[in-house]
Amino acid sequence: MTDYPKTARLMQRGAEFLGSETAILCGAMSWVSERNLVSAISNAGGFGVIACGAMTPELLDTEIAETKKLTDKPFGVNLITMHPQLFDLIDVCAKHGVGHIVLAGGIPPKGSVEAIKGGANPAKVICFAPTLALAKKLLRSGADALVIEGMEAGGHIGPVSTSVLAQEMLPELSEDHLIFVAGGIGRGQAIAGYLELGAAGVQLGTRFACATESIAHPNFKKAFFRASAREAVASVQVDPRLPVIPVRALKNKGTEEFTAKQREVAAVLDREEIAMDEAQLQIEHYWAGALRRAVIDGDVENGSLMAGQSVGMLKEEEPVADIIAKLMAQSEEALSRR
């Protein structure tokens, strides 16, 4: 960090909170943010985050244990709030002494924040906040830090851009709270701007998805390298009764199949054969399967190619350490020109 004094000074609060050298988190990407990528990011001075997604407690237990074999640096675990075994997953994290848990996918259910912070191995809680009002509520409810993520991001997204969220929330919250900015960040110059606005750090997903250490299939990576920003499009909500959070991904047959899946689930809801919670879980399981087809099997036609709009900046595989060094150097250069 001595090579990047201006950036290091602005990242200091975030880095101290995470226990990492830089305040650069990796976004939790299902099937991608696993032991290899997570450990590589933490070893390179960033903060890796395991994407639990639809994992069972047993699978998460194994993933954390295997990650700890590859790094002695801090890393976190991302848990989906609607997971039916959320509290069991929290117990697994506590068993391993995971220091930071990221709660994603909705408002944390009653007792979950308390379970994370009040057990034998208390952890820090990071939540996603799509609005200023919800941000304040989450902080009052015990969140130790927030991620504000704009619609440019890959995967599940909200309706507001990163730049607008940052302007709305950072002046109001960043003096007293730790706020990380995410969505569409591909270069260090953007990181410098958000740090100057008051961000404690940043989160990037797409930028790391095609790293050398990422286990993503070569076909998956090639699709990213060929794509432009405008090809990363948001999914369409078919039925207003089914509150499906939009997903940004590269357009292919898989995105069309998701539209059909929504119609199928809506029809089952019509027949009152399942409850709304179960309907939403079916959608999440669809995404988990579609992502696996693309990331692991390399089926880039029918699988899900979740990508943020920064995908157009990706041109080749790079080691994680080089990516982080490049981002830090770009940020430092930008700050030095101020």
Rg from Cα: 19 Å
Helices and strands, in N-to-C order?
Answer: HEHEHEHEHEHEEHEHEHHEEHHH
Strands, count: 11
What percent of residues adopt helix (DSSP H or I)?
Answer: 40-55%
Gist of the model:
With 338 residues, this protein is of the alpha/beta class. 46% of the residues lie in helices and 13% in strands. Strand 8, helix 8 and strand 9 (201-204) form a beta-alpha-beta unit.
List descriptors:
338 residues; alpha/beta; three-stranded antiparallel β-sheet; 11 strands
Describe the structure.
The structure is a single chain. The chain contains 13 helices and eleven strands. The chain has 338 residues and is an alpha/beta fold. The strands form two sheets. Strands 1-9-8-6-5-4-3-2 form an eight-stranded parallel β-sheet. Strands 7-11-10 form a three-stranded antiparallel β-sheet, with no helix packed on it. Helix 2 (35-43) runs parallel beside helix 3 (57-70), helix 3 packs parallel to helix 4 (86-95) and helix 8 (188-197) crosses helix 13 (320-337). The longest helix is centred in the C-terminal third of the chain and has 20 residues, at 276-295. The chain is globular and about 60 Å long. It starts with a helix and ends with a helix.
